[in-house]
Amino acid sequence: MDNPYGQDMKGRLSDEDLSVYRPSVGLIKEQLSSNSDVFFRDITVNSAVPITLTLVYADGVADQTRLSDYIIKPLVAGDGFKDARSEEDVLTRVREGAIYYGSQFIRYNAKDAIDGILADGAAIIFDKLCVAVTFDIKGFSRRTVNEPAGENIIKGGKDTLVEAIRFNTATIRSRLKTSNLAIEEFTVGRQSKTKVAVIYIRDITNPMLVDALKKRLSALSISDTMALASIEENLKDVHYTMFPQFLTSERPDKICSDIAEGRVCIIIDGIPIALIAPVTLASFMQGPEDYTQNAITVSLVRIMRYILMAVAIMVPGLYIAVMTFNIEMIPTNYLMAIVTSRQGVPFTIFFEALVMLFAFEILLEAGLRLPKITGQAVSIVGGIIVGQAAITAKLVSPGILVVVALSVIAGLALPNKDMVNALRVWRLVITLTGGIAGLFGIQLGFIMFLYSLARIETLGVPYLAPFAGIDSRSFGDTIVRMPMKSQKKRPEFLKTLDQER
Amino acid sequence: MESVRVNLFRKAAIPVLAVLVALFTKCGMQGELGLLPEQPEHLFLVRVLGVDKSSLGEGLLRITMEGSGPTLAVGPGEPASGKVPYIISMDGHSVYDISQRIDTTSDLDIHWGHISFLVVGEDIAKEDINKCIDMMMREHEARTSIIIFVAYGSTAEEMIKKSNTSGFLFHERLEQLVQMAGEYSVSAKVPLYRFADMLSSDTCAAYAPCLIPAEYVYNTAEMDKDKQGINLNGFAVFKDGRLAGYMLNEVARGFNFAIGKVKSTSIVVKDTLGSNVTLEVINSQANIKPLITDGKPSVTLEVSFQTNIADLQSTRSIFTERELDRLRLAQEEEVKKEVQSAVNYCKSLDADILDFLGAFHRTCTVEWEKMRGDWDRIFPALDVNIIIRSEIKRTYTIREPAGGKE
């Protein structure tokens, strides 16, 4: 068959143009001419008459063993094509399974063929027919499954997601064996052409929620997806907020648990972290060990986390407000102790607090950027030695050091880093409002904080659910964790198709 | 277009709300909204305020403040164990006037937020107590829960200055006294808001606890010979805002029984051998029942209390039903005498601090309306029937007195 679209098409074509041309060797060579890792090789099929096909593969992406054993060998040395007399016959045999490799796709347009070569590893081009058969023989080295770095637990699975999307979807499927588990793939990124999988359970998850997410993914027009934020920030509902709108996890068991609850998971090829939506504030207060420990113990810990959240954002502001505007609120003996410790300190409490908050932010950032051992040394030197020296030199008072340290450590004790980062900013906001306007400023800052939480919806679910609204049923897994036996229904705010767990 | 307006309104809502609240809470107008508010180490925290008549002229007041301030903090060269009182005295026209003058003539910024006690000198209490408390009720920094005292036979200044020792500062001693007021129940703490309520009440007179100069007994660590101790004993009774008299010792305890405020005390009665038996009162209740018979008002004052046997001086066991019953009657008799003396004293001053008129107000409103204008005449002659009920609750497991034979 002649190629009706011009075998010798010259020059680079856009994706749209490529999608209307059929694949041919000339066209594909032209389009991939600047890719030194893509090789073209003519192979003669072991057929009744000499038939030459073109094998194209991306070196490094394609697993050479699989390429040789499962694709070249059947074509060149196998018996399956012995009676073939034309490319049509060969293609028919390939369709019938003469190349005994499962993951193969027949491509009728040049764009799909090129994408298949680059993403999956190899293709055979039937130049006269203008058809390509691509083979998924990706074989580049994959990171071994380690223990989760950020969500390690004692009693529970020790595996994590890896960079390869197919491995991750397989891991999830191995845990959720239901036929209703849907794994829908999208290709995102004009340059990266990254596979993004949307995973949910068809008869549980609210279809409106899935549709909304799929619609956003389809409409996504970005260059690449090398960073998680490139997808996360484009999918979220409210853009100008510091609070995270997707839960991230690297633990397959946690991801599966959320999918089974009626949430949707997004896995991106090349990123070993899954995005989970929709989420609420309560989702970010749940630790990885919450479901492996005793319910009463976990409930107490959870209550403590909410207290810690309040401590993290409110304490420096409250301390300044009370110490500068409402000192009558402090018991006299405590006040005198603080006043005594402040003798000789030249700065106001407000300024002291800002300096200390800034100092702690420096320590945190330095600790993150430096190697682990050096980071610890910086924390010790910064926290203890410099802190003590600053007190002795009367640059700061011990009171403010304790207050700011308490607030920072309380923030770091929360389980979700994205939430911790948001609270760092809010701590500063409330410190400023408290320092400027006292308790009135604290109230104002807190109202702003609540407002910024209340205005967020993730895929239509209010961020403050179930606290805002009448949804008592969903309280069982928020501030406290009720025993599993009593949590028989899925959260109401997720509006799942099947309410029963 | 409509949604743009809604969004604009939402965005503007918080700042507008903030400004409105700032204006209506006076934050903006008072200049309290600022980047450089006063730092606590520059404040003089008043702990005790004493108010007396000034010797400089008629109508003038003299206030004495004991407090904690910047120089009170232990610094270099100061003995670590010593406590230095920080006392300021000044004369002026009113409490506020004087405090303003102290603010402007010294480097101290007076802060009333930590005041705990108000001591009123006897002279000014006899003249008009309202002069001393009005500013404390108005001042937004001051707590209305501060405890008021009257300096018995003394000025507040004298009491504050003489009672500061190296062992205790005056306010620390007052804290102790207030904490222990219920131990013997010859006095009680009266917060300023309660005192002010009584002063402005249509139905009752006011009372305040008394501070009495006492032998120096509490500082055993270091005796300050030129100093004096203070005790909390009895009540100063006010009639129409003026000090009318004092109830002390058992009369004051009788008053506490009459208002049901005895938390703990001891009653000593005799057993059949004439030896002392000490009974520890563990609680008390009182109930006033007003009655009008043929247009004549009367009051039944029911007092009930419970005791434990605390101390026996007899060598004979008293733990028989008959003997316990006899002891119960004896303790009731003792308490009745004290309550009666308190009632009689109030009648003699024509000061209804027991709030009998209030009881009529609550139960016989129509008759109260007729009586209220004439209460000064009715109260001294009021028929008060005192009923005492008691119970000896615990005899404990030691049945025999020390030295008693099995």
Spell out the helices and strands of chain A N to C.
HHEEHHEHEEHEEHHEHEEHHHHHHEE
- Give the topology string of chain B: H per helix, E per strand: HEEEHEEHHEHHHHEEEHEEEHHHHE
Q: Report the radius of gyration of chain B as a whole number of Å.
A: 27 Å
Chain-averaged pLDDT of chain B: 84
Give the % helix of chain A: 40-55%
Tags for this entry?
heterodimer, A: 501 residues, alpha+beta, 3 domains, five-stranded antiparallel beta sheet, 15 helices, 45% helix, B: 406 residues, alpha/beta, GMP Synthetase, Chain A, domain 3, 2 domains, nine-stranded mixed beta sheet, 13 helices, 34% helix
Notes on the structure:
The complex is a heterodimer of chains A (501) and B (406). Chain A has 501 residues and is an alpha+beta fold. Chain A folds into three domains: 15-136, no CATH class; 165-277, no CATH class; 295-461, no CATH class. Helices cover 45% and strands 13% of the residues of chain A. In chain A, a hairpin with a 5-residue loop joins strand 6 (181-188) and strand 7. In chain A, helix 6 (165-175) packs across helix 9 and helix 10 packs antiparallel against helix 14. The model of chain A has no long low-confidence stretch (mean pLDDT 87). Chain B is an alpha/beta fold and 406 residues long. Chain B has two domains: 37-247, no CATH class; 250-406, Nutrient germinant receptor protein C, domain 3 (GMP Synthetase, Chain A, domain 3, 2-Layer Sandwich), CATH 3.30.300.210. Chain B has 13 helices and 13 strands. In chain B, strands 1, 2, 3, 4, 5, 6, 7, 8 and 9 form a nine-stranded mixed sheet that branches. In chain B, strand 1 and strand 2 form a beta hairpin. In chain B, helix 9 (249-258) crosses helix 10. At the A-B interface, helix 11 and helix 15 of A face helix 1 and strand 1 of B.
